[in-house]
Structure prediction request, 171 residues.
Amino acid sequence: MTVSEREKSFGRILLLIIISLYLLATLFDPASAGQALMKSLSVLKNIAPVLLIVLFLMTLLSAYIQPQKIFHYLGRKSGLKGWGIALGGGVLSHGPDYLWYPILSDLRARGVNEGLIVAFFYARSVKVPWLPMMASYFGIAFTVILTFYILLAAVIQGKIAEKIIPPQSTI
Prediction:
């Protein structure tokens, strides 16, 4: 079974479980189940625009970026440039982590180094818009040193991940 088939199968099973749980909840407490369903639809309504943007970005990624280029810049032998891209991308990225999951999963399936993905997520803890406020409360030296150590830890975590996470096969 390929990665894509496993993902589809998992998605279908998860959907069936959720539907079953809603039906079960409806049997025991219809009012609460209705409230839960309305809350879920409200959340879906709020995140739908972001999901559409992610879908659009994934489509662009699939259409215009060749796997060989991705592997060259972010693959196992990407070197310092790959680490720089992962760290810079993590620092500059915004929004909740879960919105990055589909994009990074797709990149991982195309052969992106797992360590770089881990470093990207770790580097997201540096929040550029908050750096001036942090510097005003703690001082510039503290802010620079903390930021440096966060990025250093991102690389260390990424290197550890390279050692313990088996690489995924490329599409």
Remarks:
- Residues 1-64 form one domain.
- The chain has two domains: 1-64, 66-171.
